[in-house]
Amino acid sequence: MDLVLNERRGAVLILQLNRPSVLNALDLRLVRGIRAAIAGAQREEGVRAIVLTGGDGVFSVGADISMLNEMRIEEVSNFIEEVASMLLEVSSAPVVTVAAVEGYAVGAGADLAVACDVRVAGQGSKFRFPGMSFGVVLGTRALARLVGPARAKEIVFGQMTVSGEQGEQLGLVNRVVPAGEAKRCAVELATQMAEIPGHAVGIAKTLLGDAGREDVSAAVRSVREGDFAQHFAAYRARQRDKSST
User: Fold this and answer.
1) pTM (two decimals)
2) 171: helix, strand or coil
3) Where are the beta strands (DSSP E) in the chain?
4) Domain boundary assignment for the chain
5) Do 34 and 17 touch, CB atoms closer than 8 A?
6) What is the structure's pLDDT at 229?
7) In Å, what is the CA distance from 160 to each residue of 128, 141, 165, 192?
8) Beta bridge partners of 49
């Protein structure tokens, strides 16, 4: 099964995460599939914009917890580094990227949406950034660029769940549309944006201050230094306790 489906519509390439049975939870194969799809889009002639979607009802619930629970701490750290690299590649892609968010965008799934240039969210969508609860820093700089440092701290440290409507007020979401319409509206917007000369997009994204390698470095430090192993072990224990009750 292809974990990332692709569909070409003129100058727009639609990439759909395809693990619906686990709400598009990100495992290593899906992360690498996204990286390969982003790289492939840049080689495909005439692609000026990318729409990232999770399909019907969900964007992504973040890292696949069942996979993480089977990994050694070193493997978890390596996985998070790979996710951080994926986010960098999405944010620095020299084409316009639009996230079409329905349902939940959580953890690395929310970070993936934030890494895109624009976010279109269906009514009822929810964003949450829970990584700090076990010591992982991902996407926080990009979030701060969208909503400002003070709001980003409130969202991340306070473990807030932000609705699409709240996100639009804060600057996290560009447009809120009726539920089920995010993909269609994102494609329309991407088609309009694809009219911009391609060489100008990459330059403009650099000038506008997109995420850089500092974000990857911060993510790596969060899992290589300090007490990440201790906090993640405690998180695993809480997950086991929940599953046994």
Assistant:
1) 0.89
2) coil
3) 4-9, 12-17, 49-53, 96-101, 104-106, 118-122, 126-128, 161-163, 175-177
4) 4-180
5) yes
6) 73
7) 6, 17, 14, 33
8) 12, 96
Give the position of tokens 């060489």: 199
Rounded CA separation 4/37 (Å): 7
DSSP 1: -
* Each residue's pLDDT expressed in tens, for the chain with a length of 245 residues: 899 999 999 999 999 999 999 999 999 999 999 999 999 999 999 999 999 999 999 999 999 988 988 988 889 888 988 998 999 899 889 899 999 999 999 999 999 999 999 999 999 999 999 877 776 777 678 898 899 999 999 999 889 999 999 999 999 999 999 999 999 999 999 999 998 776 677 777 766 665 455 566 666 666 776 677 777 777 777 767 776 66
- Yes or no: say if 77 and 224 are a contact pair by the CB < 8 Å rule: yes
DSSP-based three-state secondary structure for 83: helix
CB atoms < 10 A from the CB of 143, how many? 25
Cβ pair 183, 142 in contact under 8 A: no
Beta bridge partners of 50: 13, 97
Q: How far apart are CA 228 and CA 80, in angstroms?
A: 12
Position of tokens 């000369």? 197
Separation between Cα atoms, residue 63 and residue 60, nearest integer Å: 9
- Residue 245 CA, chain-centre distance (Å), reads 31
Domain 4-180: CATH superfamily is 2-enoyl-CoA Hydratase; Chain A, domain 1 (3.90.226.10)
